[in-house]
Amino acid sequence: MNTAVLAVAKKADVKSGQGPIRDPLAEKKRRKKSMNSRDLKAHLRYLVPEMRLALIKEPAKAPTAIRCPEDIDLFIEPLRHYAEEKFVSFHLNAKFEVIGHQIISRGTVSASLVHPREVFKAAIINNSYALIVAHNHPGGSLTPSPEDIETTRQLISAAKIIGISLLDHIIVASTGHYSLREQRPELWIE
Known about the structure:
By secondary structure, the protein is α+β, with helices and mostly antiparallel strands. It folds into two domains: about 5-35, no CATH class; about 60-190, Cytidine Deaminase, domain 2, CATH 3.40.140. It is about 45% helix and about 20% strand. It has helices spanning about 5-15, 25-35, 35-55, 75, 115-125, 145-160, 180-185; strands at about 85-90, 100-105, 130-135, 165-175, 175-180. It has a five-stranded mixed beta sheet with strand order 2-1-3-4-5. Helix 5 (about 115-125) crosses helix 6 (about 145-160). The longest helix has 21 residues, at about 35-55. The chain is globular.
């Protein structure tokens, strides 16, 4: 691109404050001035769970084996802190070691849209033997909604067809978690 054209565009853009070209130093100063301690705390509250999920995105050299519902606590902990609903699938190998995870959907404060095709697409790509799915209830309730129950039924049905075991569907809130496999085992019985 012609440097003269770029210089003119940059000047016009800096003056107007609009458009894709911005002066990085001016932008940095503006952000520094405008971010007060409340903004910083809110920003960190958003970043901390994102960083935790990023850390577990790549499995450790020796993956953690899931033998009971409590073993998944390390992986679902980040979900407790989100202000919007997120639905995550955790992928396990034949030794029930977590080999990866996928955020399937992000929703509003009260809902997230999930379709079995998206859950199992990620599972197939990760060559998963089994799955554990989890989602958070930002409002704090651990009670499964009728939609949670229906989603679980659909996932169990799809799992049987595809041949990837759905081990559990966990609801996470700030107060704890609710295992549908433990509390509603009839969902897994044919």
